Amino acid sequence: MKERRKKTGNPEAGAERAGGETRGRSDEPLYVISVAARLADVHPQTLRIYERKGLLSPARVRNRRRYSEADIEQCRLIQELTQDMGINLAGVKMILDLQRSLEVMRGRIRALEEELEEARREMEERVRMVRESFRNDIVPVPRGELMLPRQANPFLGTWARRGPEER
Fold first, then answer.
1. 115-160 pLDDT, tens per residue?
2. Residue 115 and residue 117: Cα distance in Å, rounded?
3. What proportion of the chain, given as a percentage, has pLDDT over 70?
4. How far is the C-alpha of 59 from the C-alpha of 29, rounded, in Å?
5. If 0-12 CB within 10 Å is exposed, 13-18 middle and 19+ buried, where does residue 69 land?
């Protein structure tokens, strides 16, 4: 079984050598097909096959393929799945599609969690406003006393406290 070389070095240094501005993005198209094939330790025709099968989608700059660090990592993953695990290209495509779907779902979950957190904050604010609106005129009644409605005395309110002797 052929061992693949791992790329060592700084990908941003490659961007500087290629005359590009360093942005630190792994999806920036930097490498022509021959350089990308060397970095991924595959033949350039392999990269073309992967593109035709929909496994890779390099950017096009002036109608030439340009591969990013992410594309090269994807190629390495495809090589690992096919050579080390014995999965055919159709299976690899399914795995990659499932990974993309999983990432979309994770993004959706993050968005829903943020929405839930915002709703929680809003409800806490509403509860705080309701609590602040209370007049706090509730008077504790000692145990054993009975509160009964008062008869027609508007100055004392509608409820009167009656002790055990008045019951």
1. 999 999 999 999 998 888 877 666 677 777 666 665 555 555 555 5
2. 5
3. 68
4. 6
5. buried
> How far is residue 64 from each of residues 26, 32, 43, 115, 162, measured CA to CA in Å?
19, 8, 17, 42, 94
Q: What is the DSSP letter of 85?
A: S
Is residue 32 packed enough to be buried (19+ CB in 10 Å), middle (13-18) or exposed (0-12)? Answer: middle
Token pair, residue 150, equals 């008062």
Report if pTM > 0.70: no
The neighbouring-strand residues paired with 146 are 162
Region for 162 from its dihedrals, namely left if φ exceeds 0, alpha if ψ lies in -120 to 50, beta otherwise: beta
